[in-house]
Structures are given as C-alpha cells and as structure tokens.
Design goal:
The protein is about 35% helix and about 30% strand. The protein has about 220 residues and is α+β, with helices and mostly antiparallel strands. A hairpin with a 4-residue loop joins β8 and β9. The longest helix is centred in the C-terminal third of the chain and has 22 residues. The radius of gyration is 21 Å and the shape is elongated.
Length: about 220
C-alpha cells in the first residue's frame, strides 16, 4: 500500500539555535482539508503506542523523501488539538542545516505526515473521508508540494479498487455510483465510457447482470 502524504500544516511553534523544534504535524476535526479528509481524535493512538512498545519513532524526512533523513523526532503525542511533535535536526547534515535556515527565516514552516490508512469512514454524498486509525510512518518538513493532489488521488483510487474487488468477491453488487467512480478514478475512463460500462455490466444491456461478470471485468481492467 502506498503511503499517503497529508496536507502541509503551517504550525511550527518553536525553533532553537541548536536545531530543536516543535509543532503540530496534524490537527483533528474541523473542516475537511483540500483533499477532503478529516482526521479524527485518537487516530494516531494505536500507532504511537506501537512505536513506544518497539522503542521507535516516526522518521523525519525532508519533503517526504526517504533518501533525505534530516534528524529525528524525540516526542510525538496527541492532545486536544492534534498531533504535537518535537524534533532535533541533525546539524551535521547539509540538508538539515538548510532546513534550519529556511525555518529560522520563515521561508518554510510546514510539517506533513506520511501514513497508511487503517480505519476510516466515508461520507459518499460529500466525498469526505474521516480517518479514524492511521499507521504513522514519518513526519516531514515540507514546502507545499506540487504533486500532493496526485498522491492523494492515487491512494484513494487504490483503496476504492480494493473495496470494489472485495465487494464483488463477496457476491455483492456495486452501485452505479461506485462502479462509475471506480472506472473514472482508478482506470481513467471518461464520463461516457464509465456510463457505457455501467449499462453493459450492471444494467444488463448486452451483458449478463451478475457479480461474476463484474469481477471478471474488473480483473481484466486490472490486468
């Protein structure tokens, strides 16, 4: 599964001359972010407990790039507002020194989380995801990335493909909206192509209307 990158949160609270800093990497509730996501209170609790048990912490990267670690997180806790993190930049690393200077000058001040979705609820009418359980993998210092929308769309499409496949395997029938959304979001169908596929494979116009045919069709597309 791909790691989802959260929207940058511009909320770094403190920065010392030795490269120590803290800030909110994510906040709970409120209005959906630009990707239509809301993170529920407690979403990180299991992941933080697992890190504590293992004696590990989420990684600290520059711009979500695992090839560019720039320090370490020394604390990560949930409070009433969100996920508060405290970190130490490795001032012996060139990129970390650059990040420090950029943070100090205020040229960048964003934190963004990288995680796997483990629990969520979907409001289909408004296309809002409430994320209830997250496996926190890393927290990055970021500027606003140009590719974040594509990353989010790819992850959501991947999950919808999985959900649709499992639903068909269980012998359940996809709704017209689920089928159209799947085809447009995951396979790049145009509106007319998706509507035609719905007519053929869900409404029985020219093809048998059953879950087995739907699954075969989906597997053919995936292949």
């Amino acid at each position: 599964m791909k790691i989802k990158q959260g929207a940058a949160l511009l909320d770094i609270k403190a920065l010392s001359d030795k490269g120590q800093f803290e800030g909110y990497a994510s906040t709970f509730g409120g209005e959906p972010d630009s990707y239509g996501d809301v993170i529920a209170p407690g979403a990180f609790s299991d992941s933080l407990a697992e890190h504590a048990t293992k004696g590990t912490m989420p990684k600290m990267f520059w711009q979500h790039d695992p090839r560019e670690p720039i320090g370490r997180w020394t604390m990560a806790v949930e409070d009433g507002k969100g996920l508060m993190v405290t970190g130490q930049l490795n001032m012996g690393v060139q990129r970390a020194r650059e990040a420090y200077e950029l943070l100090k000058s205020g040229d960048i001040d964003g934190l963004s989380i990288g995680y796997r979705i483990q629990g969520y609820e979907v409001d289909e009418d408004r296309d809002i995801w409430t994320l209830t359980k997250l496996d926190l993998r890393e927290v990055s210092i970021v500027s606003i990335g140009a590719n974040e929308n594509a990353t989010i769309a790819a992850v959501k499409s991947e999950r919808r493909v999985h959900e649709a496949t499992e639903k068909l395997r269980a012998g359940d029938r996809l709704t017209e909206r689920e089928f159209e959304t799947l085809l447009k979001g995951a396979f790049g169908f145009s509106n007319s192509q998706a509507e035609r596929a719905v007519r053929l494979h869900l409404k029985g116009q020219g093809e048998p209307d059953n879950a087995a045919n739907g699954l075969a069709f989906l597997q053919a597309l995936s292949g």
